[in-house]
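May I ask for a single protein's sequence together with how it folds?
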Amino acid sequence: MAIASFYAGEDITAGDAVFVESNGVLFKGIGTERANASVVGFAIDSVSSGNLTRVDVDAQCTSLSSLTPGTDYFLSLTTSGQIYDYTNWTADFSLISASGAFLTRVGKASATTNLNIEIVSPIYVIK
């Protein structure tokens, strides 16, 4: 398991999907822009902005709930840090006003609370 530490640029909750800005500060991921959709892993700790937090970049996130085992999960387009199955991602996609968004696969559920982290680079999807 690889764990990296970053300073949080906003309040982050354990289990949030996160990305790192060019200045090295951590934020919750969202699929509306390539940089924000370029998730590096999942927060291990819940912290306030400005504090150091750990990020699991390649193992298993165990801070989630209501997952369906065997299902692939993707970064949300409407709620920062959250993930959804593909059916809910497409529902998110229909709600946004932009002409497109980024589809970022983050992993596959192995249990209702566990996600095997398998991050794929964001793919731009046009409406």
